[in-house]
Amino acid sequence: MRTGIPCILAAVIAAMFLAGCRQPQQETQASNERQARLLAAQSADLQQQLAARQAEIETLQQKHVQDLRQRDEELARCKARIEALQKDIETGIAERVRGVTTRLLEENAKLRQEVEQLTAQIETLKNTAAQGDSP
């Protein structure tokens, strides 16, 4: 029986070594699986975050384009208004100049008439005075 005990003992020790070697392999595989699941979950979260950021960027780009269009439209309206105001100013100035010119020409014509009348009166007075001085 003595030879049987060492064989059994050797078999038990060998089984323990084999069990001990397999256990770290199993733990390593379980750890690798956990890490793989964790990485997969992180990857899924990151992809969701990336999709959310891309959607946010798209929304902001659309808003920016819309804002630019509105500003362009507002700029066009302002330019049209400025042109209209400039035309009104030019028209107003031209009308005022015509009005002043017309008044000045009318006033000038009246003054010429008065000068002619006064000249005629002076001539008449000179003639009357000259006739009164003659004996």
Description of the structure:
With 135 residues, the protein is mainly α. It has one helix at 4-133. It has a domain at 44-124. It contains one helix and no strands.
Short description:
By secondary structure, this protein is an all-alpha fold.
Keywords for this structure?
single chain; 135 residues; mainly alpha; 1 helix; rod-shaped
Instruction: Give the distance, in angstroms, between the N- and C-terminal Cα atoms.
Output: 197 Å
| Alpha-beta content class | mainly alpha
Silhouette: rod-shaped
CA radius of gyration: 57 Å
What percent of the residues sit in helical stretches (DSSP H or I)? over 70%
Strand content: under 5%
Write the H/E string, N to C. Answer: H
Largest sheet: none
- How many helices in DSSP terms? 1
What is the count of β-strands?
0
Give unreliable regions as ranges.
Answer: none
Average pLDDT value?
Answer: 85
Secondary structure blueprint with pairings:
Blueprint: H1 4-133
